[in-house]
Fold:
Amino acid sequence: MQLIFVFGQPASGKFTVGRELAAITGLPLFHNHLVVDAVGAVFPFGTEPFVCLREEIWLRVIGEAARAGRSLIFTFAPESTVDPAFPLRLRELVEGAGGAVLFVALDVSLDQQEQRLVDPSRAQFGKLRSIEMLRSLRDDFTRCMRDMPAPDLAIDTAVLTPREAAEQIASHVRWPAARPEDGPPAASPP
Structure:
């Protein structure tokens, strides 16, 4: 099982790059807002029930995927309501099931981040769209990024297109040798 753990600040391109990576690899995209939006529909962001349920769902889904040998792409936005130990616990969970984690950090310039933040497409998943709020939280986001495990790969999304970033990530995945009992792959690895 390969967990491609794509992380970055708001508007760094996590969902866009993840979607391209899913198209290239055939892997499912378990993006951050699937869980954030579902739990946020019932509990306000950052409240104790929200934080507990969000992490429980992330761990449960990825843990089950690891036990089933089902590789996937996971996008994640490091921020202060997430326990800083979460990425390491997730890695232990995946590796304990015989899988591997590829940590991919997406970087973006401050100017580019602010330009992307107001793009109407960000409204689809209730993503942060306020430049004022981004600026007020920037130090927190920076600190949370520093607390992440060292990335296996860092990509500047202001320099590469989403497709180029996804191709670069796919080239770093350690694809296991195919076994006859596995049948044909969903998509050919690059």
Notes: Residues 178-190 have pLDDT under 50 and may be disordered. The two ends are 17 Å apart (CA to CA).
